Amino acid sequence: MKFKSRKDIPFKLFTIISISALIALETYTFLTDKYSFGITDIVILLIIPILLWIYFGTYYKLTASNLEYTSGPMKGSIPVTKIKEIMVGKTMLSGLKPATAKKGLIIKYDIYNEIYITPKAKDFFIKRILEINPDIKITPYDF
Fold first, then answer.
1. Which terminal residue of the chain has fewer beta carbons within 10 Å of its beta carbon, N or C?
2. For the whole model, what pTM was predicted?
């Protein structure tokens, strides 16, 4: 089952402002008399599709045995049987974060590994993952 990522306002604003600024910069340099296509233009023209890829291509998939995550170019898979705990409503500041919002789910697996995700249907996601592995500890975060 596929779960789309929730996008909060700061993420949406960051994406829109970044892409708008890059397009404005490219347009301005193109319209000036001294324009020449260079490495900076290539970098800018690569950043825009990557930002759009992350914005539209962040999702999570639960299969019978794995939690698969995709966020633009970042992809991976975690066996559901290795998940020990899910912390609900907390934001992880560092680490693996294929997410597009705050107050999501921190999934702890193996011994010390963690991943931060933000499925739109958080409660339904938890219900489905518990059907696969009922031994997962759910910890609400009230801070």
1. C
2. 0.85
